[in-house]
TrEMBL record:
<dbReference type="InterPro" id="IPR008930">
    <property type="entry name" value="Terpenoid_cyclase/PrenylTrfase"/>
</dbReference>
<protein>
    <recommendedName>
        <fullName>Squalene cyclase C-terminal domain-containing protein</fullName>
    </recommendedName>
</protein>
<feature type="signal peptide">
    <location>
        <begin position="1"/>
        <end position="33"/>
    </location>
</feature>
<keyword id="KW-0732">Signal</keyword>
Amino acid sequence: MTANFFQNMAGRGLLPVCAAMAIVMALSPCAWAQKKDPQVRISALKGLDWLASEQHRQGYWEANGGQYRVAMTALAGNAMLCEGSTTTRGKYSKNISLAVDYLLEMSQPNGLIGYKNDYHYTYGHGFSMLFLSQVFGEEEDARRRDRLKEVLTKAVQFCGEAQTAAGGWGYVSAKDGNDFDEGSTCVTQVQGLRACRNSGIPVPKEVVDRAVEYINKCTAADGGVQYSIRGGGSRPPITAAAIACLFNSGEANDDALAQKLLKYCEKSIVGTGNQSQFFGHWHYTHYYYAQVQYRLGDEKWNKYFPEIAKEIMRKQSANGAWKEGHVGPVYTTAMNCTILLIENGYLPIYQR
């Protein structure tokens, strides 16, 4: 039973208010998370404080070299939502509000959230759908809510039109990229689409169904998802992301394809210690693999999370950022903070 059930019981006079509140607190994901190692939250807040200090006045964050502003803004804003802040409440409300304004301004007439001279604009578009749809569900200002609905509706339409003939997505739309597609951008789009659907934005079922079939066709005999439908070898990072994508698309946890991919990841992904460097895109991998492990329940999560959290905290810089990787500290810090805070349960897209 959910916390809302007991709150409704109290409101109807069927349960004393004090008893209902005690049960709600006991059931709260955040209350449960706070029973864990307090250093996890301290580390995450330190990271978020660093992100807040790095936000530009116009509301955006950026990667190394001033790149990927749309994607970095959505990832950083999403990490702050995981802490519990919204556009109007919480420690990072101003930062989130500025990020929303920036992304709304970046919405183009054709529905793309981003700019055409970004040669990886589908990443930013997908992450923006994810972030803005989570905000849309909590937005209290009627005018801003209408604007979010308009932007997200057009973003979903653009996403469908950008899908390739094979059912995937590339770094740019099918039209701009000569129908090229690959696995990681496909995952980003599907998760963004599911987040939109969860928030009440209409999403054509056939678009998601074609994407799931694309992932199926990309799966190699060893259970790993290849770089693209054309081949490229099984990739642990894309496979982990694909499982999250399947769960988000509505596929059950016991779906045969998801289980096949999961077995591959369990053999291929080593999360801690020196072995964690044996594959590339470590942060990207665990950004999605953490979502998968959390969705699988406490038995899996309570084994996975303490180790991955320890590894993440071990690499944190004194100023709160994480600096590994070539994309830049905004990227790694936003992803690590999301992992550390995911079990707060504030965002519907990450809930069990």
